[in-house]
UniProtKB/TrEMBL annotation:
Key word Signal present: no
Protein name stated in the entry: Integral membrane protein
Segments passing through the bilayer: 7-25, 45-68, 108-129, 167-185, 197-219, 225-251
Organism of this sequence: Lactiplantibacillus plajomi
Entry keyword annotation includes Zinc: no
Keyword line: Membrane, Transmembrane, Transmembrane helix
Amino acid sequence: MGNLLTNNLIVLTIVIGVPAVFAWLLTLVNRRSKANLVNRFGINSQVYCGFLGIMLHEISHLFVALIFRHGIQSVRLIKLPHLHADQTDDLALGYVNHTWNRNSPYQVIGNLFIGVAPIFGCTAALLGLDFWLAPGIGRAIVHLAATPEQLDWQGSLQLLMTSPTNWWQLGLLLLLSLSIILGGFDLSPADYENSALGLYSTCGGLVVLTSLATLIGWTGWMAPLIAWGLTVAIILGSSLIVSILVMVLTFSFTDH
């Protein structure tokens, strides 16, 4: 009984809790940074600075919506907002309008993952950039997450130090990462509302599947899941740190 409760708590924390907490914090911080940019440089500055993240945000929604067989009505990966528009949709920086069958549990559950898809899409993009432009960083992150029961900080640091990177690669990595972080991790109220539609069904499904797997003694999937969750947490944690630094920097843009 103890293992049953523990495994369910671990699964719900990794799949639901960790992304939810980071999504809330990243949204809060990056929304403040965007507001500072808008106040100083105008409403379109958030698009110019975060264009890559905005497109990845919408691509993530679209990709997961297709996986869950939602009907795609219209897509726009990036657009300039209109501050004095009559319709609130004109303030959006991009959109994916989709429909679903309310009688299909699969499509209803999909709403949760579609809503938070940018968190995972942008996380994957950041990890991919690390491996492309600074392989040492990517290897260090994966190595650290590979042993969640005993984090090998020394091994990760060694991988980081023995993989030299050119200055232009680090500079490009910083610029692209900033654009992704600033424009991609800010979940809109519509994203949260959409996610809420599938939250209870998803939690129920996870509890049922985890309980069945635990009762029949199949727990080999727990270690890879924990390693995956730790990888996501490390990348999102670093994104949050950079986001806070960017927010502090943008405060200098505001008029005093």
